[in-house]
Description:
The complex is a heterodimer of chains A (about 525) and B (about 180). By secondary structure, chain A is of the alpha/beta class. Helices cover about 25% and strands about 15% of the residues of chain A. Chain A contains twelve helices and 17 strands. Chain A has helices at about 20-30, 50-60, 70-75, 110-115, 130-140, 155-170, 215-220, 270-280, 350-360, 365-370, 420-435, 500-515, and strands at about 10-15, 35, 65-70, 175, 225, 230-235, 245-250, 255-265, 305-310, 325, 335, 345, 380-385, 395-400, 410-415, 440-445, 480-485. In chain A, the strands form three sheets. In chain A, strands 1, 2, 5, 6, 7, 8 and 17 form a seven-stranded mixed beta sheet that branches. In chain A, α1 runs parallel beside α7 (about 215-220). Chain B has a domain at about 10-120. Chain B is built from six helices and one strand. In chain B, α1 packs across α4. The N and C termini of chain B lie far apart (about 85 Å). Chains A and B meet through α5, α6, β4, β11 and α9 of A and α4, α5, α6 and β1 of B.
Amino acid sequence: MSTIAHDEPAVVIIGSGAGGGTLAYELTARHIPVVLLEAGPHLTHDDYTNDEWDAFGQMAWTDMRTDNGSWRVARDFPNLPAWTVKAVGGTTTHWAGATPRFKPHEFKARTAYGRVDGANLLDWPIDASEMAPWYDKAEIAMGSTHRHGRKPLPANNNYKVLANGAERLGYKYYATGPYATNAEEYDGRPASVQDGFNFQGDKNGSKWSTLVREIPRACATGLLDLRPNCHAVQITHDAQGRADGVLYLDENGAMHRQRARLVSVAGNAIESARLLLLSESPMFPDGLANSSGQVGRNYMRHLTGSQYAQFDEPVHMYRGETMAGIVADESKHDTSRGFVGGYYLETVSLGPAFLAKFLDPGAWGRNFTSFMEQYANTAALWIVGEDMPQECNRVTLSPSATDQHGLPAPNVYYDDHANDTAMREHAYRRTAQLYQAVGAKRTYATTPYPSTHNLGTVRMSERPEDGVVNQWGRAHDVPNLFVSDGSVFTTSAAANPTLTIVALAIRQADYIADQMAAGEI
Amino acid sequence: MPPTEYSADALGENVTRRLARALRAVFPHDNVPDGPYERSAEAILSSVSASPHQTAVIVEGLRGLDGLTGGDLTAVTADELSAVLLQIERTEFFQIMLTNTVVTLYSDQEVWDALGYEGFSSDKGGYVSRGFDDLDWLPEPRVEEYDGEPLTDYVPSIPGGTQPSFETKKTGAAR
Ligand SMILES: Cc1cc2nc3c(=O)[nH]c(=O)nc-3n(C[C@H](O)[C@H](O)[C@H](O)COP(=O)(O)OP(=O)(O)OC[C@H]3O[C@@H](n4cnc5c(N)ncnc54)[C@H](O)[C@@H]3O)c2cc1C
């Protein structure tokens, strides 16, 4: 760990999750000192608990947020649009580990899908062949199973049901990964003990996170100044419109200013957009880097949903790696199904506490309890598919609600697009058939949970009028401002996002280091 | 006699048991003993204790249920009481019971036991040698990816079976 003076113009990264944690490590590894501001505390595996609600209370982002729109989350969880983590390591501490890549056509959604009514589709300014080497690096860093010689995880009970159902339905493309948790010792971390706790933080250290890999390595370079419990509230700029500092509150509520030579925003899509909006100034009255008006817009959260299925025989879905089971057959684009884009099916498991809350929020009585009573005989999968970017789906500053610091809370507005709804209905139908094919007695299609994937609010575009950042995540309007998390996604693709966030951050680090060496930043 | 002051004392001695009975009607599990319902009731009572209004909501709610069940809510079956609760689903009283209990009841060890959930596992070394893969009523599936033809990602592909190109068109300006 190093200490960087507040008046030294530093490289300042805001947020230590998938994007920010990776960027911090990759820059320090290239001999560039970094100040890393993280709003949450520095907790490690000994602090974690296997109790779902205690773990959520310990680490989830529970600062004031509001939400609205026609999605059901707004009705059931008006203050919980998303499940993200506020701690060193960000949401990679609670993530599961599924790491599929984008498909080539998913980087070019506008070209591939044509014009879709009501959707703000745009091609990414980068493509799959350009990303391929960065995906390789990310998979190696994260230890994705089935890739680069990493062994697959063994089949757990929940996967056995999924895979057999998939096979009987005629699906072929199923496996226990790619999944960024060690099946055997790798990279100084042990093999999974199949304890079943991913969403609560992995006490065993087998799962990749920036907390266990990138951040300790960045500290070891001696070039990282990690500041936990430090909440960035504004990015300031000079008379030329270049970012020159970050104002942040420390754990005692005292305000500090860190001078900056370069600022990277990586607070996860809701907070990243909020911070840019909070950074309005006379020169940037609509928020920093927002000449396009796209900051906060095109919020995406993936089409999601779950299918629970109950059998005469036991499953014990909660034993083992939660999401080590992926079916890719429906991930293709095939408009004969009645929608554009595709979706994956992945094993999922909740304990009784979360299942009761999220199965069908507000449900009670015998119909509900009879379902809970078959808990041990239940298998489950999660549906994750591409959702359409829409201008109306948007993060804004609440006109009335504030957080504990008195700052305007973010409001998240989301409507499902007709394409999202058609895809979800298709997925519910196919997944019920999948489980019936292996003898399910009862199936239960579950509504989307609060968003675990948050994307698109600071999107990449070739032209400055279509988006906020360019192909390097560099703001079109502010040359030394970068965005380094899932906010930059031009479209969501079907794949879980984290592998792509990490690959983009490694690529961005390479670009930033080159630009700094060349004296361009 | 209805209470005249809505402090915690006004709840009376039977309130935990009576509230627990109502909670059983919200989440009826015949194989769950009274303990978890009573613990959930106590959690509600302690959470409302700071609010005279919410305390009154609970006291009046229980009194109302007594009235709707012929005088004593504990004298009817859980299912009969559930049918009565159906009519008051939108009330604050019901919502307090529902939103609190869904969290506390299903976080209770005794309920986990009844449902067949094993709870904490990290301290027991996980399930790697305790049955994470013991399901034996289906064949052992493959864990590797399919090794035949790769998935056709984009349908319809261009006639002739090739996939269209989705490379970025390089313009002069792009670097
Ligand atoms: C239960 C769950 C399961 C998941 N499973 C998968 C999976 O299997 N595969 C997959 O690809 N993805 C998965 N995800 C999603 C994955 O966790 C996210 O995609 C990823 O972590 C997002 O990276 P990020 O860098 O955008 O943000 P984060 O990782 O959330 O990091 C953002 C960080 O910024 C901090 N921050 C925010 N605002 C400020 C501020 N103003 N000042 C200072 N710090 C700030 C936050 O505290 C946080 O630490 C899952 C998520 C959850 C919740």
